[in-house]
Amino acid sequence: MREDLKEAAMNLQEKIFDDTKNAFGVPAFERWQKPLYRGGMDNPDGYARITGPCKDTMEIFLKFENDRVKEASFETDGCGSSVVCGSFAAEMALHKTPDELLYVTGEDILERLGGLPEVERHCAFLAGETLQEALNNYMIGQQRK
Ligand code: FES
């Protein structure tokens, strides 16, 4: 009986994974299982925190060295898609100059993911907008120096 339950649970988990993979695509599925660059950062050079219309909040942290992003990370209290999009936003920000960062938008994140279901697309825009605001925060800091 126990083995039956274990097998049923494993089959159910496999089905959920397959459904998720089909709905969100392989890159998003893999990143959902293992998000990269998640967590806060002490004394970031650029930082932003934005709460989207869905009430989920995204934070982006950037550290620069020689005018390039040396470290990037994100944190969110949002859905699985927001975790995936925050993770890709941080990854896509790495090693970029401020000018290059301007071109990392929600659309770029969606493109990198190969798209998201319509109801989840705003998660990518929240990540992109937060990244742009973190860049803005960095630029303002640079002007004050
Ligand atoms: Fe709000 Fe995904 S549902 S960020």
What does this structure look like?
This protein is α+β, with helices and mostly antiparallel strands and 145 residues long. The chain is 55% helix and 17% strand. It has a single domain (2-144), classed as Sufe protein. Chain: A, CATH 3.90.1010.10. The chain has helices spanning 2-24, 26-33, 80-93, 98-101, 106-113, 121-143; strands at residues 46-51, 57-65, 68-76. The chain has a 3-stranded antiparallel β-sheet, covered by helices on one side. The protein binds FE2/S2 (inorganic) cluster. Residues 52, 54, 56, 78-79, 81-82, 123, 126 line the site of FE2/S2 (inorganic) cluster.
Mean pLDDT: 93
Number of E-type strands: 3
The secondary structure category is alpha+beta
**Which percent range fits the helix content?**
55-70%
The number of helical elements comes to: 6
Order of helices and strands: HHEEEHHHH
Q: Give the CATH topology.
A: Sufe protein. Chain: A
Task: State the domain count.
Answer: 1
Shape: elongated
The fraction of residues assigned to DSSP E strands is 15-25%
User: So what's the CATH class?
Assistant: Alpha Beta
Low-confidence stretches: none
- Provide the list of bound ligands, each named once: FE2/S2 (inorganic) cluster
Distance, first to last CA = 69 Å
Structural Rg: 17 Å
Largest beta-sheet details: 3 strands, antiparallel
Give me the CATH architecture, please. Alpha-Beta Complex
Strand order of the largest sheet: 1-2-3
